[in-house]
Amino acid sequence: MVKSFGSVFDCLVVGAGIAGLAASRRLVDAGLSVLVCEKSRGVGGRVASRRIEGAPFDHGAQFVTNRGAEFSKIVENLLIAKVVFPWFGEAGKERYVGLPSMNQIAKILAEGLDVKQGMRIESVRFCSDYWEVSSEAELIRSRSLLMTCPAPQALDLLKCEANENSSYILNTLSKIKYDKCVALMALLEEPFPVSDSGFLQYDYPEPIATVADTLKKRGPESPGIIIQSGPEFAERHFDSDPVKISEGLLNAYPRSKELRIVSTSLQKWRFAKRREHCISDSYISDPSAMLWHAGDGYMTPKIEGAYLSGLRAAESVAAELEFKLR
Ligand SMILES: Cc1cc2nc3c(=O)[nH]c(=O)nc-3n(C[C@H](O)[C@H](O)[C@H](O)COP(=O)(O)OP(=O)(O)OC[C@H]3O[C@@H](n4cnc5c(N)ncnc54)[C@H](O)[C@@H]3O)c2cc1C
Fold first, then answer.
1. 2 pLDDT exceeds 50?
2. Which residue CA neighbors atom 15 of ligand 1 most closely?
3. Residue 229 reports pLDDT greater than 90
4. What is the pLDDT averaged over residues 189-202?
5. Are 286 and 166 in contact (CB under 8 A)?
6. What pLDDT does residue 4 have?
């Protein structure tokens, strides 16, 4: 396919996960032209949901928490708009769940944004005044580049662009590591309460880290259970046959004999949960190259951290663009 240049955007955002969407909203609110490129067919990244025989299942993040004042305001607005509702947790430590599924949070954030779905960025090149960003079919120019894909994926794209200015970015990206996770979703004949709250977190997360039932999340119409593995299990079995992985997780759940399973679905996450590190930045950037990276690699490795990292990076991009245009 012939590649062509379209218009030059103020900012091209790689990834329509929570960080990319939060950042893009802030940039658009600042009056900038923004294109979001997302390799998947939907928005949300790891805030992901799918339907099994019509029943909604969250196969990434199970809930959203708000530990700081700034993100609490966002969650409050989502509550008012009936996009989330409280699931469980004592005061100050509530967990909220998306309605009808977690992915709705991302869909609301994406409203009105220019998101190109199914567009995997394959290469990026800085040409002194702008970035040239390529997918299989298109070549796009942008004055700035904000990457929000997990750090290892950003590193892969940026390695070829390395110069002495970008060594700080490349070094930082290489310190951000992720654990894998596999999640088994099972649609059941009838509701199956896993605990009073509907959620179980194991102290030693191997082979199972968490179990959630959809009864407490969504009501009795879509009975189901979601079992998420710990990192060691996922690392060991990531490339195994999905049927074997599902069996391994079910066998490890002490109450699996009580489950009356209708059908199952498996999700593998290569970059699931960010490991602890000692990076204190909210994002990283090289303003001389108009390059930023944000996401849950910084701040807290959760939806809240991803959102706030995206916002902080967007504010920096907007300030830098304004400075350049002055
Ligand atoms: C199984 C699991 C359970 C979790 N549970 C919770 C929880 O209960 N509560 C909580 O707060 N957090 C939870 N998390 C963590 C939370 O989901 C993440 O911290 C957050 O969603 C990260 O958002 P992000 O925007 O930084 O990254 P992502 O969501 O990973 O978004 C990055 C996006 O970039 C896209 N992308 C990557 N490469 C390219 C490319 N080359 N071109 C175009 N697009 C590209 C990806 O497709 C993706 O959509 C969980 C995560 C997992 C995997």
1. no
2. 302
3. yes
4. 94
5. yes
6. 59
Show Cβ contacts of residue 2 under 8 Å, excluding neighbours closer than 6 positions: none
Amino acid 92: pLDDT: 83
Cis peptide before 150 (omega within 30 of 0): no
Whether 52 has a pLDDT exceeding 70, the answer reads yes
CA–centroid distance, residue 46 to ligand 1 (Å) = 3
Of 35, 43, 46, 145, the one to substitute when testing ligand 1's pocket (max ligand atoms within 8 A of C-beta) is 46
What is the Cα–Cα distance from 166 to 190, expressed in whole angstroms? Answer: 55
> All domains of the chain, ordered by start, with CATH?
8-45+107-176+280-325 (3.50.50.60), 178-274 (3.90.660.10)
Percentages helix, strand, coil for the chain (3-state, rounded to 5) are 35, 30, 35
- Which strand (E) or helix (H) includes residue 78? helix 69-80
Q: What is the mean pLDDT of residues 159-188?
A: 89
As a whole number, the mean pLDDT across the chain is 94
Two tokens at 78? 């989502």
Among protein residues, the one with the nearest Cα to ligand 1's atom 38 is: 149
The set of long-range contacts for 239-243, using a CB threshold of 8 Å and a minimum separation of 24, is 242/266
The end-to-end CA distance of the chain, in Å, is 38
Two tokens at 47? 């805030």
The answer to whether the CB of 307 falls within 8 A of the CB of 72 is no
0.85 cut: is pTM over it? yes
Does pLDDT of 175 surpass 60?
Answer: yes
